[in-house]
Design brief:
single chain; mainly alpha; 2 domains; 0% strand; 7 helices
């Protein structure tokens, strides 16, 4: 929930469809009323002894029975309350376990997305380098090329994270292969033994580090 508390769990009776919490509350209220009624009858019986002393033995038996009923009722009430407390603890533990599992799942998903973003960033850098090298081998003066315009579409992809979930299952070699095909740049995955680390070593390790992001202030724009 928004305030960080655990969401309530409602369980339903399979027979009547009532909430288990509501049923337990009703049971406790009924037992409380029974106890009050037993006490009320006891008061009436005591008054009867005063009015008709000859009925003392019968009233005494009635009071003994009422006392036993009251003890049983109070014992049942304590049992219901104990069951309520146990049920609440069980539900609290279950909700906490579910919350922990959701947190683990969310953390794992974040790791996957971060890995996909890193792969995507590296694949774009490698593909751009391969494209420039391909042009150089074809005799093009790459120093005079406006690389910002040449790779405008790839640069836009760097800032677009909407495709990260779709890229989770792709390796770095896969992404470079796809980008090179789109750019018309020859690349044989077998040349790096289909290995991401080899591809990084051959094409990424010697690249200069990109400049840091400028501060988010108009004077640095």
């Amino acid at each position: 929930m928004a305030d960080g508390s655990l969401p309530p769990h409602h369980h339903t009776c399979a027979t009547c469809g009532a909430s288990v919490d509501d049923t337990r509350a009703a049971d406790a209220a009924m037992l409380q009323r029974m106890a009050e009624m037993i006490l009320e009858v006891g008061e009436v019986a005591r008054g009867r002894v005063v009015e008709v002393p000859a009925e003392h033995p019968a009233v005494g038996l009635t009071l003994a029975r009422l006392s036993r009923s009251l003890r049983l009722t109070l014992a049942l009430k304590r049992r219901v309350l104990d069951e309520q407390a146990s049920f609440a603890e069980t539900q609290k533990a279950k909700a906490a376990a579910e919350a922990r599992e959701l947190a683990r799942t969310a953390a794992f998903q974040r790791e996957l997305l971060e890995g996909a973003k890193e792969n995507k960033t590296e694949a774009i850098a490698i593909a751009k380098t391969m494209a420039v090298e391909d042009l150089r081998e074809k005799g093009v003066d790459v120093e005079g090329i406006d690389q910002e315009s040449l790779f405008a579409e790839l640069n836009e992809r760097l800032d677009d994270d909407s495709d990260l979930e779709a890229l989770i299952d792709y390796t770095l070699v896969d992404l470079v292969t796809l980008l090179c095909t789109k750019l018309g740049v020859p690349f044989d995955p077998a040349s790096v033994r289909h290995n991401d680390d080899t591809l990084r070593h051959d094409w990424l390790d010697d690249l200069p580090e990109p400049p840091p992001e400028p501060p988010k202030h108009k004077s640095w724009a």
